[in-house]
UniProtKB/TrEMBL annotation:
InterPro entries: DNA-bd_dom_put_sf, MerR-type_HTH_dom, MerR_fam. PROSITE patterns: HTH_MERR_2. Keywords: DNA-binding. This is MerR family transcriptional regulator.
């Protein structure tokens, strides 16, 4: 699949995909005989995972660290697991904070709904 179609499929601009390739986040992108990028289902799976990490608040530096470990192969499984466990702990803490914010907003909304605020 060419970069234009792949871009639409994964929801990232061609510029972002080229940037990810430049910084080493997207490696081994195949090329056609004419030199155009050609993306595979494995590239899609990887980009979907990268997007998930990014959407859950993992900094690009952490994603790059994970990608480098992944590239090194099976010897880094424990390190990758630990990196994901650390991110999960961060995410869990962040979710708890958001839940507290939600409760505070619910309390304020209930106050307004009760009519006891002028």
């Amino acid at each position: 699949m060419n970069i234009k179609d792949f871009s639409k499929l994964v929801g990232l601009s061609p510029h972002t995909l080229r940037y990810y390739e430049k910084i080493g986040l997207l490696k081994s992108v195949q090329r056609s005989q004419s030199g155009h990028r050609f993306y595979t289902s494995r590239d899609k799976e990887w980009i979907d995972f990268v997007k998930r990490l990014k959407e859950t608040g993992m900094p690009l530096e952490g994603i790059l660290t994970y990608a480098k470990l992944r590239e090194l192969g099976c010897d880094t499984l424990l390190e990758r697991q630990q990196l994901l466990e650390q991110h999960r702990a961060f995410l869990s803490s962040h979710i708890q904070e958001l839940e507290q914010h939600m409760l505070a907003l619910d309390d304020k909304i209930a106050l307004y709904q009760s009519g006891k605020v002028s």
